[in-house]
Structure formats: C-alpha cells, structure tokens
Write a structure and sequence with these properties.
Blueprint lengths: L1 H30 L1 E2 L15 E6 L5 E7 L8 E5 L3 E2 L5 H9 L3 E5 L13 H18 L7 E6 L1 H12 L4 E5 L5 H8 L5 H4 L6 H5 L6 E6 L7 H10 L3 E7 L8 H4 L1 H10 L3
Parallel strand pairs: 1-5, 4-6, 4-7, 7-8, 8-9, 9-10
Antiparallel strand pairs: 2-3, 3-6
Helix pairs in contact: 3-4
Length: 271
C-alpha cells in the first residue's frame, strides 16, 4: 500500500512539474492573443483617418491609425488596446471619440496587426512610448492636451507610461490590480505569482499618479472581476470618477464605444 501511494505521488508530482514547465514556457501565448491582420487602410475604415508608422526605441516599425480632431488644438486620445484583436476592432471607439471632438491614435503592439516582433511587458512599454512620441513630435499635440485610454491589459500599458509622462487625464477600462492577481482568478490551482514573467502592477503604479483618473468597469465582467477594478480605483492617487456599467461583460460593445466610456474620456479631457 505504501509503495502504491509513493508511486501515485511520484506520478502526480511529475504531472504537476510538466504542467508548470509548460506554463512557464508558453505563458505569453495565454496572455497575448494577437490578430496579426491584415489591417485595411485607415481611410477605408475611418473618415479622415490616415495611416502612420511609429518607430520604437528598439527599431521596430509599427502600424497605427490617426484620426485628426475637428480643430488643430483638439485634445488627443492615445488608445492602448487589450490583449486581443488589432486596431480595426477599435474603429467604433475611434469614431465615437471623434464625434465627441477628440483626435485619436489607434496603434497595434508588436506582433499585432501585421507588426513585427513578439509581445511582452517590456516591448509593449516601448510601443506605447513610440505612440506618445509620435503624437507629441509628429502630430504636434502638447503633452498637456493628451488623454490616455487603456483597455484591460492596455490599462497597465498606459499607467506605466503615465508614471513617466503624465497626461491631462487617464481612463482605465476594466483594469486589474496586477497580472498575477487576474491570472490567479483563472488558474487558482497554479502558483501564478511565482511563474509569471510579465507583471503589470497597475494598482501600485496608479497610486503614484497625480492625474485625474477615471475607472470604468462592467458589473458582469468575468474576465477581470469588478472587485479588481474597484481596487484600482481605490488605489488611484487622484480618482476623478468610478463608472460602473450595470450588466456589462468584459467584451460587450457598451464597454468598447458606449456612452459611459466615451463620456468618461470627454470628462477628463482638457477644455
């Protein structure tokens, strides 16, 4: 009996070791879910939109769409997408923000939308810095006229950027406390915090910001639990508003381009 128990324990231990090893090796395939294109020309999707190229500090050229505002001094919104799809899936958002009088930059991370490279935390940080640099240096948008809008994983990307380059306002849609916290929700049987390579400490970084910050969440979100988004709001160094959309799930259209989200951006944009 003892020998049988030892044999069973050994088999279980080997299975767990293999599972942990696979998670370590392939974890980024679970985190990043790119749609690599092809992506149509901006003008065929957005009236007045144009294709632009962002150059990252490590030499990658990334595709992006810029929708100019109704006037040269219109505030501009830098949109950092979530972990899935590509910029074409955010066209409805760009149109809604454009109707509200804002310029919009939609960009794809490395590995997304036909872009070269493979996504990871450091790489996405370089990508969003390139997006901000393009808006300031090429589009001529002053830093104090910029609003950052992050969607899920993109909340982590723009929050890290805001620590370096504070915007006029920050909107976080469905933010998580950190990547390990949300990973543990979906893989409670694994030591996620010990295994994760990418950290994305949203709550820790947002606490360091003196920027008007609005958190938007769906109360029926099963991807990022609403409690995590509320914790990010509670941690914010300068919370402007917490907007809860009743019955909305993580990927519902109301959280993509709905009135509540668009108004949240307008409310923190400079006049």
């Amino acid at each position: 009996m003892l020998r049988r128990l030892l044999r069973t324990a050994l088999v279980l231990g080997l299975v767990c070791a293999v599972l942990v090893g696979l998670l370590w090796a392939f974890q980024r395939r679970l985190v990043y879910l790119p749609d690599d294109g092809p992506v149509p020309a901006a003008a065929t999707v957005l009236d007045g939109g144009r294709d632009v190229v962002l150059t990252t500090a490590d030499g990658l050229r990334l595709g992006a769409w810029f929708l100019p505002g109704p006037s040269p001094d219109a505030p501009a919104v830098l949109v950092a997408a979530g972990n899935g799809g590509n910029r074409e899936h955010r066209a409805l958002l760009a149109r809604a923000l454009g109707r509200a009088g804002l310029a919009v930059l939609l960009f794809d991370y490395r590995g997304y939308g036909g872009n070269p490279g493979s996504p990871d935390e450091a790489g996405l940080g370089l990508d969003v810095r390139a997006a901000r640099a393009w808006l300031v240096e090429e589009a001529g948008v002053p830093q104090e006229r910029l609003v950052y809008l992050g969607e899920s994983l993109g909340c982590a990307v723009v929050t890290a950027l805001a620590v370096e380059h504070p915007p006029a306002g920050l909107v976080l849609r469905s933010p998580f406390v950190d990547l390990a916290a949300v990973g543990s929700e979906h893989y409670p049987f694994l030591p996620v915090r010990l295994l994760l390579r990418d950290r994305y400490p949203v709550a820790e970084q947002v606490a360091r910001l003196d920027v008007p910050t609005t958190v938007v969440l769906g109360t029926a979100d099963t991807i990022v639990p609403p409690a995590q988004s509320r914790r990010v709001a509670a941690a914010a160094g300068r919370l402007h508003a917490l907007v809860e959309v009743p019955g909305a799930g993580h990927n519902d259209l109301v959280l993509l381009d709905g009135e509540e989200l668009v108004q949240a951006v307008v409310d923190v944009a400079p006049r």
